[in-house]
Design goal:
The chain is mainly β. Helices cover 0% and strands 48% of the residues. It has no helices and 16 strands. Strands 2, 4, 6, 7, 9, 11, 12, 14 and 15 form a nine-stranded mixed beta sheet that branches. Strands 3-16-10-13 form a four-stranded mixed beta sheet, with no helix packed on it. It is elongated and about 50 Å long.
Length: 174
C-alpha cells in the first residue's frame, strides 16, 4: 500500500430550503358582521423547513492518489470504495424537519447530484442523494415530518481541502 494520508474534508452541505406557500386568509375587522370564528385554512398554507443536522463526511482517509468514494446512507450506515479507506468518526447524515398543516401529504424533492467547492478552487461531487422518506409522505397530527438524507461523495487523491456546497430541498403540498 502506498502512503496513507488523512484527507481533511470538513464537508458541510448547507441546505437551501424552498417551501412553497400562499398568504393566509385573515378576518376583516372592519366588516359589517364581525365573527370570532377562526378562518378556514386555505389549501396551500405555509410549509417551514428546519435543518437539524447537516450532512457531514468529517474526514476521509485516502490511500495513494487514486479516486474513491465515501457513502453515508439515511440510516447512518457508511461505506468506502476505491482509494477511500475510511470516514472520520464524526460523519453524520443530514436531518430535516418539515412543519405545516397537520395530516397533509407533501412532496419533497432532493437533487440527484451537486458540486462542492473548496476555497482553493477544488471541486468534488456529491451524488446518489437519497432520503428515508416514503413515496407518500404525510405530516403527522402535529403538522411535523422529519427525514434523514445521505449521499455518495466522489473524490480523487489530489482533492485536499475543506469543501462546502448547498443542497436545495423543495417541499410542497400534494
Amino acid at each position: 500500500m502506498r502512503g496513507t494520508r488523512h484527507f481533511a474534508l470538513q464537508f458541510a452541505v448547507g441546505v437551501a430550503a424552498a417551501g412553497l406557500w400562499s398568504p393566509a386568509d385573515a378576518q376583516c375587522r372592519l366588516c359589517d358582521q364581525p365573527t370570532t370564528e377562526l378562518p378556514a385554512s386555505g389549501p396551500d398554507g405555509d410549509i417551514q423547513l428546519q435543518i437539524e443536522t447537516k450532512l457531514d463526511f468529517d474526514r476521509l482517509i485516502l490511500s495513494g492518489t487514486g479516486a474513491g468514494a465515501a457513502t453515508i446512507r439515511p440510516d447512518g450506515s457508511q461505506s468506502a470504495d476505491g482509494g477511500v479507506i475510511d470516514l472520520g468518526p464524526r460523519a453524520m447524515v443530514g436531518t430535516v424537519l418539515v412543519h405545516g398543516e397537520a395530516g397533509r401529504s407533501v412532496r419533497v424533492e432532493l437533487p440527484h447530484r451537486i458540486e462542492l467547492y473548496s476555497l482553493g478552487g477544488g471541486r468534488i461531487t456529491l451524488d446518489e442523494i437519497t432520503s428515508d422518506l416514503t413515496a407518500l409522505s404525510r405530516l403527522d397530527p402535529a403538522g411535523n415530518l422529519s427525514f434523514r438524507f445521505g449521499g455518495r461523495l466522489i473524490v480523487s487523491g489530489d482533492s485536499d481541502g475543506q469543501y462546502r456546497g448547498d443542497l436545495p430541498i423543495t417541499v410542497e403540498y400534494n
